[in-house]
Amino acid sequence: MKKYLLYIGILLVGFSSCNKKNPVTGTDASVDRLAPVILVNGLETLRDTMKFSLHPEYAFSFSIQDDQTERMLEVENLQNGLLYFQGKIVNDALTNISGITNGQFTFKALEAGKFNFRVNVRDPQGLTTAAVVEINMLDNLLPVAKLALEQIDDPAPYQVEIKGLESFDQDARWGGKVMAYEYMVDEFYTTESVRSKIEYIFPEPGTYTIGLRVKDNDGEWSEQLTKQISVQ
Q: What's this model's pTM, rounded to 2 decimal places?
């Protein structure tokens, strides 16, 4: 009788251990059925655009959800750029991130262009999930000159106001700025200024050609825009 009860007890213990459930997932704890989940800036796909000359580096966060702590990180399809984690480049090798559930990456572009890469997280069973990062690093866009002319005769006759107020940088949305204005008066007078408006007094009535080009914060100039004004 004792042998029979002992045999029943062994069967019950074995059955219980084989069907032990994970209290969180409700699955068999001895078999991992859930791939890890990684999000970047809280998203499955992160998209952003910036100006390469001003922001060659881009920092973004990540978070991982998993039912176990062991996992590896792998970066896929990243060219002409570097991805850093904890100060180390993680482009070309598997990185052990066991026990890490959140952190920050720093992406550094080596040139302007469009970057589309994947950040993969893999558990010991080979289950893998990826987050996608799409970053457009814009090359510099030239500024555009806008020129307005007005005869004001104040305080002297034949005085003209030369305005570049409406000039703009095409990549202003990403930090581009107009930094300087170069004014040309009838090909005999040229001056560079940070002012978007100047006055010029002509010696006599006539038709004059005025030119303007503008410089952005990358040090590049726009095409010169010219207009004529009849001074009376």
A: 0.76
